[in-house]
């Protein structure tokens, strides 16, 4: 019997003994959960973890799992945790095996072990440019998020300098999924992936190319403007990046002004990313309308020369504002002469957005593709439920995958919106659907718990619970690799309570 199975049996025994009033069991529970009148299996697991000196069941589970891993498996898990910023996993592995970061040179760079890096380069200078797996050392450094855990900025920069002194390039990159058309630069790794402004600045000062198809776009997602300013100051060009549109996803006036001042075109059309992944697809004024930006954003764009009459898929920005229900942008465009008559299904969509009974049904097949995806596009907006229900009642598609195969229910899960997700679940969507990223419904929720910009205010655990209550499989790998600690705890406890739902293999 495995150590974990023994712990689960102990938890069941504790729960049973507590329910019967056994004094020892009651004392154990009261020591951890003083107010508990009854305990669930997850509570019993938590108590066992605390008794073993761990803060939570996932940490105890990980400790047990790690004890059964060989060293190579631990090193691989450390690599993953550093890349995804799973700091509690990094801390647990290095606490148990302090020299684990020295198992290969890439790990040494990723944990900022300057002493070991210096020693290796002293006897093997070519190690600075030799790939470990699919990435060279500078990539291991740039894509590590250790700086936001226990990593030291001074040690990190010392590693960067040591690598550069032995030939590593500030323009290094690796090919994502081995695709030659999708290189990810170390500059993107530092700024866009790791939010490591110190390393981003170091790279730019040493000649890193700011026009790498990734860094500027992702610099708009960070919640601050330091990376964006650095890139623009070093000559980043906005054209062709869709960074303007991405900043508008956050109604970020400051970022838009910065890019316009740097030469961004307020009438720029959309561009296809070299990787082939779909991008923003619309013009800036259309983006302001569909992303529920405010009137000030419209004024910024119009003052910079945006054309209020430009059309996308035959629709003017004003029509976008009306069908998406953005009254503020519609009024701002109307004041600047951008209003146009609404006809046919566009008029019908506008009535739905205005809260009126449409009085007719939509024919989605005759709508532009952009509007056929409206359900997925608006579901993250506040107070949107009534609008969604009116759209779907009028015949709008509610389980249609977008350009990357992501369905509305998956988007609701990624966004961490349990009320919206529950609504879609009542419509009986295809829960077996796998999107083009390889994500199932549960995997998409877990990814959102680590990557959704609004994750701190959302409830991804409630979404995961909804999915699991619907009977979706819980891959063992999802439990093991979940990076957000509360989500990891929830999945571990669910798996312990519902072992029949846990599968060895399966897409995330």
TrEMBL record:
The keyword Zinc-finger does not apply. This is Ankrin repeat protein. It holds the Pfam family Ank_2. Keywords: ANK repeat. PANTHER family: ANKYRIN REPEAT FAMILY PROTEIN (PTHR46224), IQ MOTIF AND ANKYRIN REPEAT DOMAIN-CONTAINING PROTEIN 1 (PTHR46224:SF64). It comes from the Bacteria. ANK repeats lie at residues 211-243, 280-313. It comes from Candidatus Rhodobacter oscarellae. InterPro entries: Ankyrin_rpt, Ankyrin_rpt-contain_sf, Cul2-RING_E3_ligase_SR.
